[in-house]
Amino acid sequence: MTEPERADPRHKNVLSRLRRIEGQIRGIQKMVEEGQDCEQILIQVKAAQSALRATSGLILKGSLAKCYAREGLETPDEVLERLHRTADIITKFIE
């Protein structure tokens, strides 16, 4: 990863979200260790899943923006290659 990517506010936002999710997961582990109510554990698992889904979307948007911001790709084959890559990313994201 290049220095400009690390300075990007989206990069910092993703890292911040991932750290929060990590804290959520640790909290869930503690709940399980303490034998807390299954319903409460499942509520927290669902919240962590939602946070991961939102973070995945943010990463996907950043990736697509980067892909289409490239300059100098002028041939139809290069454009088609970018479209195929985009389709692959989206397909993996929705699986």
Question: What would you note in describing this structure?
Answer:
With 95 residues, the chain is mostly helical. It has a single domain (3-70), classed as Metal-sensitive repressor, helix protomer (Methane Monooxygenase Hydroxylase, Chain G, domain 1, Up-down Bundle), CATH 1.20.58.1000. Helices cover 85% and strands 0% of the residues. Helix 2 (9-33) packs antiparallel against helix 3 and helix 3 (38-69) runs antiparallel to helix 4. It is elongated, with a radius of gyration of 18 Å.
Count of all domains: 1
Determine the fraction of residues in helical runs and give it as a percent range: over 70%
The CATH architecture would be Up-down Bundle
> Which residues form runs of ≥5 with pLDDT under 50?
none
CATH class: Mainly Alpha
How confident is the prediction overall: mean pLDDT? Answer: 83
Number of strands: 0
| Assembly of the depicted chains | single chain
Structural class: mainly alpha
Itemize the secondary structure elements and their pairings.
Layout lengths: L2 H5 L1 H25 L4 H32 L6 H19 L1
Descriptive terms for the model:
95 residues, mainly alpha, Methane Monooxygenase Hydroxylase, Chain G, domain 1, 0% strand, elongated
In a few lines, what is going on in this structure?
The protein has helices spanning 3-7, 9-33, 38-69, 76-94. By secondary structure, it is mostly helical.
